[in-house]
Amino acid sequence: MRLDVQPWGETMAELVTAARAAESAGAGVVWAPELHRNAFTTAAALAAATGQDLGVGTGIALAFARSPMLTALAAADLDELSGGRFRLGLGTGVARLNQDWHGAEFARPVSRLRDTVAIIRAVLAGGDPIVHDGVRSIRVRGWRRPYPPVRARIPIYLAGVGPSMVALAGEVADGWIAHELCPPSDLRDRIRPALEAGRARVRPDPGTGGDGIRPVRDSGRGPAGVRPFDVVAAACCSVDPDPAVARRRAANVVGFYASVRSYADTFGAAGFGAVCAAANTALRAGRPADDLGDLIPDEMVDAYTIAGTAQECLARLKEYDGLADAIKLSPPSYGLPAGEVRHAQDRLLDLVGSVQ
Predict the structure, then answer these.
(1) In sequence order, which ranges of the chain are alpha helices (DSSP H)?
(2) Where is this region: Disordered (predicted)?
(3) Sign of the four-CA dihedral 106, 107, 110, 111
(4) What contacts 193, CB < 8 A, 6 or more positions away?
């Protein structure tokens, strides 16, 4: 199983240094998220600073906050900059983020994302005219990108949590990226069946294997002749000789999501409804969303993160074997001072290096 890294840095220079360290440790892909930084700008910095054996992806960029055409142009530029190493990871985000933060439409998100992918692929294919009618539409005539593409096809990954969005990823994308809190049991019982349902709707592609997508590989599931598909699990990974310290570093990550109403049903079904209620109450009382870890019991940290000694974390990684092609690991950073995040990231990279 490939180990990917979502590097952290207080400055862009530090972020680039962390990506180089991940490359030296043997990571397969470095992923650039979009929350406090622009995912495409970060991906450009990572691509320019790393070598040809390391993939670079957006993990994830917001799909609705930009026009599909601008997203396609950014992807083409990044694929050129990286020498064919770029992976376009897209996700919808939640309604409030789109509408209140970005003034973006969010209605019918599954159909909207389907149209977004179709338009991006049409723009990257370079035809004239470019026409697509749907929840998102485009009509472009008399335009062609005058620069030769690095590859015939840039791989597109979709993030998804609900069954319809996950199935869409299986149907229209080249890969799926997990939410940061996605334990192996959820991957096995809920995600894989939805992905396979989507994959079953894919029409065989006569160009499979010849389009230069690398190193995306088939997980061994899906119809014969269908384009390879990359299943990328994700986890906050906190490594320390003292497992209690490791768990406390990761607890704020779980606390952040426990305070968000969108995840209440998921946590409630796992028996953590009371914890979520307490986190939400604390948030409404004025506590920072990234500093709720003291409300999170160890069993909840263990359920949703990889935290403990190096040996304990290696054992947890093995639980993803056969369920994912890769796992995107990120150091704990929520509510922690920068020096502690640096230490946690160094231990994470040591763990990656010990495996690769």
Answers:
(1) 12-25, 39-49, 68-82, 95-96, 109-125, 163-172, 184-186, 192-199, 243-258, 264-269, 273-284, 298-304, 310-318, 338-355
(2) 200-222
(3) negative
(4) none
* 3 state SS of 34: coil
Residue 265: predicted pLDDT = 87
Task: Rounding to the nearest 10 degrees, give the CA dihedral for residues 7, 334, 60, 356.
Answer: 30
Beta pairing partners, 176: 158, 231
CA torsion angle for 238, 243, 249, 251 (degrees, to 10)?
100
DSSP notation for 152-178: S---EEEE--SHHHHHHHHHH-SEEE-
Q: Is the pLDDT of residue 214 over 50?
A: no
pTM over 0.85: yes
Q: Is the predicted pLDDT of residue 39 greater than 70, yes or no?
A: yes
For 255-288, what is each residue's pLDDT tens digit? 999 998 888 888 999 999 999 999 999 999 999 9
Helix axis angle, 68-82 to 39-49, nearest 10°: 10
Can you give the residue ranges of every domain in the chain? 10-231
Is pLDDT above 90 for 125? Answer: yes
- Phi/psi region, residue 126 (left: phi>0; alpha: psi -120 to 50; beta: rest), is left
Q: What residues contact residue 124 under an 8 Å CB cut-off, 6+ apart?
A: 72, 75, 76, 149, 153, 154
Q: Which of 222, 227, 158, 225 is nearest to 193 (CA)?
A: 222
Question: What's the pLDDT score for residue 204?
Answer: 66
- Average model confidence (pLDDT) across the chain: 93
> So what's the architecture of 10-231 in CATH?
Alpha-Beta Barrel (3.20)
